[in-house]
Write a structure and sequence with these properties.
Largest sheet: none
Helix content: over 70%
Subcellular location: Cell membrane
Order of helices and strands: HHHH
Pfam families: DAGK_prokar
CATH topology of the largest domain: Helix Hairpins
GO molecular function, one term: metal ion binding
Low-confidence stretches: none
Organism: Hymenobacter daecheongensis DSM 21074
Cofactor: Mg(2+)
Number of strands: 0
């Protein structure tokens, strides 16, 4: 910014870099505590491995990467909603339960959409390989 002190720029840069550290810690914490996220990590590894084995196109990689990113984002947001809900409503409350159910439903919707992407991208080459044998 014009007229900003050099120290102010350095401070903003340090805060931006630190925010990446917080984000990575959040993903790591979720991976340690959330079974569903570990399942998504395994599915991610399988999809990436299958993509390399089948030699999918750049467009197919883009679709697979987008599907993976959306599923991970939804799962992380679901984890955040659950944690916040537990914080503000440690005792059972119908609205807290609904919030958790809706957040879990969002994960289900994107996971099904990702499965469809996977079937469309990986299905035809896998079927062709089966027919050749």
């Amino acid at each position: 910014m014009p007229g900003a002190k050099p120290d102010a720029h350095a401070g903003r840069l340090r805060r931006r870099i630190a925010s990446f550290g917080h984000a990575f810690r959040g993903v790591a914490a979720a991976l340690r505590t959330e079974v569903h996220l570990r399942f998504h990590a395994a599915a991610t590894a399988a999809a990436v491995g299958l993509g390399f084995c089948l030699g999918i196109t750049r467009l197919e990689w883009a679709l697979v990467a987008l599907a993976i990113g959306v599923v991970w984002s939804a799962e992380l947001l679901n984890t955040a909603v659950e944690a916040l809900t537990d914080l503000v409503s440690p005792e059972y409350h119908a609205l807290a339960g609904r919030a958790k159910d809706v957040a879990a439903g969002a994960v289900l919707v994107v996971a099904v959409a990702a499965l469809v992407v996977g079937l469309l991208v990986f299905g035809p080459p896998l079927l062709a390989m089966i027919k050749e044998q």
